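[retry 2/3] Methyltransferase: previous attempt timed out, resubmitting with same input.
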Amino acid sequence: MDLLSLARTVKDRVEAPITDVLAVAKVVTDPRTPLLLALSTVVVTPLYRAAFLASASGSGVLRCLAVRPCDLDSLVEYLEVPDDRERLRVWLDTGVRLGELDVREGCYRLRSTMAKLLAQAGNDAVAAALEEIMRFHVPALLDAPRMLKEGRRFSLDDQDGTVIARSSLALQGMVHEAIDRHLERSAPVRLLEIGCGTGAYVRHAARLNPRLTALAVDLQREVALRAADNMAAWGLTDRVETRQGDLRALELQPQFDLVTLHNNIYYFPEDERVEMLARARSFLAPGGRLLLTSSCQGGGNAGLDVLNLWFEYADFGGPLPREDELVGQLEKAGFADVRAARIIPTQPFRAFVGTNVRA
Ligand SMILES: C[S@@+](CC[C@H](N)C(=O)[O-])C[C@H]1O[C@@H](n2cnc3c(N)ncnc32)[C@H](O)[C@@H]1O
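[retry 2/3] Methyltransferase: success.
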């Protein structure tokens, strides 16, 4: 029983001995009690709710309950946890007490507006962003000092590439706008997308230009496989080849009209960025262009600050770029006519373009 409920029940306990009342009074007048209550209400409960929603979403339980209310047995079957029925019930009942779920006549259903919204297919990127925050950002904040003491760094395996690929689509509006501004619409375009994630931006480009063909590459096998599945589902396999590959090891002829890198410049250490950008340029035909989009530092956005922290603590990659530094790096990598443009006035998101003038 927490202190607040204890205080509330005092008045109901007339049968209790007076010593009980005195003991309770001592506890509830403890000067730490208001702090504990404030901590619980303002900080901890929202954190618990966010964690519950992230795991309910990540496990598919939100989607499942959005289709229809389910009893415990159906959820045991859905999650394939036949030996852990009771433990699953404890987790679901915690969700009920947190106000995210409801249970009626033995059937669990979605209760909070947030749970209902996150369960909608159209909000998948936001649900994945919540999962990214809880699973990767929170540990970065929690463990940073200990990681420094232990000399420990995050590795790529500490991320779930498929969650990140989905969550990255929360920036879709801005990336689409950047593509809309820079993609040639009628002439045939040969596109190379590096770090394609779900492949959604190759799909957008292919829709804008019906004569576009592309090679979509992602470093992470699981991500590349999902992107290939998506291309098949979108009917694009005849125009788009999808592969697992690392920009640093790609062997390609200078055949592309456009090379794109969306939301992944910070997967490369700062001191390797010039070399990596020069490599991307080497795949461009003369006159071909690079389009790179990224959130940049200095936006006063807590989410980006923690993303930046994660990559500062990674054993690969580096901080989010600063606009002027990245422009300089693109120029050093041999790009001409380098420009950086804001997409939305208040957002620290930029589209960088540069041209390969060399043969
Ligand atoms: C944050 S995700 C962005 C995915 C997608 N571009 C988007 O904006 O939705 C970054 C992606 O870049 C990929 N990536 C990182 N380093 C790479 C490299 N060296 N070569 C190819 N892909 C890379 C990662 O595997 C990851 O899927």
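[retry 2/3] Methyltransferase: The domain at 31-118 is CATH 1.10.10.10 (Arc Repressor Mutant, subunit A).
[retry 2/3] clearing retry counter.
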